[in-house]
Design brief:
single chain; mainly alpha; 7 helices
Length: 125
């Protein structure tokens, strides 16, 4: 059952990638460009999940990913424009936004053993 739960978490990850990154269609047929877009999508997923997880441990990564254009793009724009004095303010605003809009919904029962971290912990014990 634990292995199936790991597999299910991976399926949910791929669903998020396909839903939120428009993997169904690419504007090019060149393999190198498509591969670059896939790697960029994976990198973007890691960045947004990492920032969301570091902001609040109780954040819903799915909810945070759905609003990435609201909270992450201003941070990235400040970084790209090298507006170093603005980045701290943008990160603070992103933290507040995530804390208000991306918290996990309360569960009726504990799902600690159904998350990847919980499954890994159980498998390694």
């Amino acid at each position: 059952m634990s292995i199936y739960r790991c597999r299910w978490q991976i399926e949910l990850l791929f669903k998020e990638l396909k839903s939120d990154t428009n993997w169904q269609r690419f504007a090019t047929g060149q393999q190198a460009i498509v591969e670059g877009l896939v790697w960029a999508s994976l990198l973007a997923l890691i960045i947004r999940r990492s920032l969301a997880r570091q902001s609040l441990p109780s954040v819903s990564l799915y909810k945070a990913a759905k609003n990435v254009e609201v909270w992450l793009l201003p941070v990235l724009e400040a970084y790209l424009h090298r507006a170093w004095s603005e980045i701290a303010g943008k990160l603070d605003w992103a933290h507040r936004y995530i804390s208000m809009n991306a918290l996990k919904s309360p569960q009726r029962k504990s799902k600690n053993d159904r998350t990847l971290d919980g499954i890994y912990e159980k498998l390694n014990s």
